[in-house]
């Protein structure tokens, strides 16, 4: 490989993105793509997501060959934003990064939302962006921008690779060894090696014509661990390079995650929490079972968000928002232990902002939690010796039982239904039909989806009004739950859920992946519904609570100050989209459920592919 500054000008200056007339017998671009992707597969990558483009054709063709050899699952997506979130979903479910490949220009920019979510949620993700050669940067060349550093504030590792200039006949050339080393470092960084949390990495690959050639014979052959390639330690990171300096020789960096995101070395000993202070455990997004284990060990009440994966166990608090406002419960909290990323309630935010409460937060991805200016970050927690405060726990559990909401439909009156008295029997039949035919509201919708979901299923919540309703009313249940709460955006919800389903099914899971979201979140991610005809459809149910717009704003302060016309125009944003036609246009089965009976039937019917279930709701 040569440094970019010494490279000869390319004919690519005026050719746009048109492919050459014929594939070259061999191409440095293809050999480089084979070295990079081949090594990532060796390390454990099993899913590659590709958006089509000319500049990235070598990477795409190598990915297609790896799929043909049955060593990866390849997913092709027209829209790069959809591709990024699909890869994010794979990493979310599997814990192993997926590779997403795209061409240059705005294609690379469309991966930024997924990169941001991966950073803040701690999800492994490998972004591989093809680029024009460095001599075309900053001179007005077509489809060319400054891609190096594009994701710098969020990535765990980034490299602007040298332009490949060698055809490697044996798979042992210097450029191949270097690319394999970069692949190793990128894979490790995506998993969080040395950085405490997993996250996105970015490999920018500038390429010159010929952009593709014959695949090297050594692709997929076993590789002996090579001698380590020493990467140039003197190359400045991208944010220190002069604006007019051409790039393209390898630079590497740990990304732009700030010092606050990467704390000191983790302590080897756990932080021991002594008995005494009145304590609650807060489980936010992605807390997982650890929060419940800690709650049980300490004998402490467990406040678990619906997206935490911790909403189960004997100490689970129902109706926690109301109880946190109670002076005798929330008002008496002296210590909080936080696991995960809490985002769903103002009551939790208010508690964590109190300066009179001692807050310990287990370190996680993204920015450290410190709402009260004195939160203590910890790596491990142990519970001190002694008896649990049974009075404190008991007060919470009694209040929890009183605050629990029973959304189960009333059981049929078996005696009346079998009565020989006509009026009794007919009355029971009318009551039963009334239950089945009752119109759906948001509480009944989230309850039906929650009841239909079991440990072998996956449930994805969109950042819509429905997730807050679910958080307020649903009981405890140990099921796999996902949600993009790193930044809590509505974008990419369906694509992320598809990635989750693909990863789960490829690992042998036999359940259904459900995604519960609002109509605007669905419309924001319509491109995710487009799946190539050659790819197997995952087992999915997309359940859409359609209230005609963004009703989440009706519950915020803006609803009290905005005029009705302005509120509808710029916040509620009403629409007239026909979801049945959208489903038909994108190849999804469709059902509309207006009653609890219809919804239960749709959720529990045998499923082999994908279905969109619309539930009309009033504003």
Write up this protein:
The chain is built from 20 helices and 20 strands. The chain is an alpha/beta fold and 619 residues long. The strands form four sheets. The chain has a seven-stranded mixed beta sheet, sandwiched between helices. Strand 17 (513-518), helix 16 (519-524) and strand 18 form a beta-alpha-beta unit.
Helix content: 25-40%
Shape: globular
Number of strands: 20
**CA-CA gap between termini:** 61 Å
Q: Walk across the major sheet and give the strand order.
A: 2-1-3-4-6-5-7
Number of H- or I-type helical stretches: 20
Rounded average pLDDT: 88
Beta-strand content estimate:
5-15%
Q: Describe the main β-sheet briefly.
A: 7 strands, mixed
Helix-strand makeup class: alpha/beta
Extract low-pLDDT stretches.
1-23, 227-249, 253-260
Please state the CA-atom Rg, rounded to the nearest Å: 27 Å
Please name the defining characteristics of this protein:
619 residues; disordered N terminus; alpha/beta; six-stranded parallel sheet; 20 helices
Describe how the helices and strands are arranged:
Layout: H1 28-43, E1 47-50, H2 57-68, E2 73-76, H3 80-94, E3 98-102, H4 106-109, H5 112-121, E4 125-131, E5 157-160, H6 174-190, E6 200-206, E7 251-253, E8 271-273, E9 279-283, H7 290-298, E10 302-304, H8 320-324, E11 335-339, H9 346-352, E12 358-362, E13 376-378, E14 381-383, H10 390-403, H11 414-417, H12 422-437, H13 442-452, E15 458-461, H14 465-473, E16 481-483, H15 493-506, E17 513-518, H16 519-524, E18 540-546, H17 558-561, H18 564-572, H19 579-586, E19 589-592, H20 596-604, E20 610-616
Parallel strand pairs: 1-2, 1-3, 3-4, 4-6, 5-6, 8-14, 9-10, 9-11, 11-12, 12-13, 15-16, 15-17, 17-18, 18-20, 19-20
Antiparallel strand pairs: 5-7
Helix pairs in contact: 1-2, 1-6, 3-5, 3-15, 13-14, 13-20
């Amino acid at each position: 490989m040569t440094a970019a500054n010494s490279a000869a000008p390319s004919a690519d200056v005026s050719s746009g993105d048109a492919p050459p007339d014929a594939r070259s017998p061999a191409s440095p671009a293809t050999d480089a793509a084979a070295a990079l992707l081949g090594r990532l597969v060796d390390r454990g990558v099993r899913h590659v997501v590709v958006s089509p483009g000319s500049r990235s054709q070598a990477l795409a063709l190598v990915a297609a060959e790896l799929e043909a050899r049955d060593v990866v699952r390849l997913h092709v997506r027209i829209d790069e934003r959809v591709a990024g979130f699909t890869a994010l979903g794979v990493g979310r479910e599997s814990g192993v990064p997926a590779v997403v490949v795209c061409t240059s220009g705005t294609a690379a920019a469309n991966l930024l939302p997924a990169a941001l979510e991966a950073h803040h949620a701690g999800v492994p993700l490998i972004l591989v962006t093809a680029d024009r050669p460095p001599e075309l940067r900053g001179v007005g060349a077509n489809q060319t921008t400054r891609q190096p550093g594009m994701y710098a504030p969020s990535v765990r590792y980034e490299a602007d690779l040298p332009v490949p200039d060698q055809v490697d006949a044996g798979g042992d050339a210097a450029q191949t060894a270097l690319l394999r080393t970069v692949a190793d470092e990128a894979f490790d960084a995506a998993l969080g090696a040395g950085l405490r949390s997993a996250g996105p990495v970015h490999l920018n690959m500038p390429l010159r014509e010929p952009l593709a050639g014959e695949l090297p014979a050594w692709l997929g052959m076993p590789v002996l661990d090579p001698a380590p390639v020493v990467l140039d330690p003197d190359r400045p990171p991208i944010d220190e390079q002069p604006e007019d300096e051409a790039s393209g020789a390898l630079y590497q960096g740990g990304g732009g995650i700030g010092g606050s995101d990467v704390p000191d070395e983790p302590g080897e000993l756990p932080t021991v929490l002594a008995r005494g202070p009145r304590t609650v455990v807060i489980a936010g997004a992605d807390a997982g079972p650890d929060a419940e284990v800690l709650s049980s060990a300490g004998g402490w009440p467990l406040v678990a968000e619906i997206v935490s994966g911790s909403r189960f166990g004997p100490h689970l608090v129902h109706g926690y928002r109301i109880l946190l406002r109670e002076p005798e419960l929330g008002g008496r909290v002296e210590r909080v232990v936080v696991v995960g990323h809490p985002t769903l309630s103002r009551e939790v935010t208010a508690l964590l902002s109190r300066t009179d409460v001692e807050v310990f937060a287990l370190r996680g991805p993204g920015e450290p939690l410190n709402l009260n200016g004195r939160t203590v970050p910890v790596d491990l927690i142990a519970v001190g010796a002694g008896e649990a405060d049974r009075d404190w726990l008991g007060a919470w559990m009694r209040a929890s039982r009183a605050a629990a909401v029973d959304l189960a439909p009333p059981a049929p009156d078996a005696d009346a239904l079998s009565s020989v008295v006509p009026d009794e029997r007919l009355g029971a039949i009318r009551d039963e039909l009334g239950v089945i035919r009752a119109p759906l509201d948001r509480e009944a919708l989230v309850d039906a989806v929650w009841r239909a979901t079991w440990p072998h299923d996956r449930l994805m919540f969109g950042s819509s009004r429905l997730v807050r309703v679910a958080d307020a009313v649903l009981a405890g249940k140990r099921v796999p739950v996902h949600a993009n709460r790193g930044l809590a955006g509505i974008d990419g919800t369906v694509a992320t859920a598809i990635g989750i389903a693909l990863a789960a099914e490829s690992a042998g899971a036999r359940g259904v992946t459900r995604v519960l979201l609002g109509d605007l979140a669905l419309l924001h991610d319509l491109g995710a519904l487009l799946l190539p005809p050659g790819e197997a459809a995952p087992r999915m149910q997309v359940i859409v609570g359609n209230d005609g717009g963004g009703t989440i704003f009706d519950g915020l302060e803006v609803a009290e100050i905005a005029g009705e016309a302005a509120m509808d125009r710029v916040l509620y944003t009403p629409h007239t989209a026909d979801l049945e036609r959208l489903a038909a246009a994108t190849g999804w089965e469709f059902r509309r459920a207006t009653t609890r009976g219809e919804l239960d039937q749709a959720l529990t019917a045998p499923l082999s592919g994908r279905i969109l279930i619309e539930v009309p709701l009033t504003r």
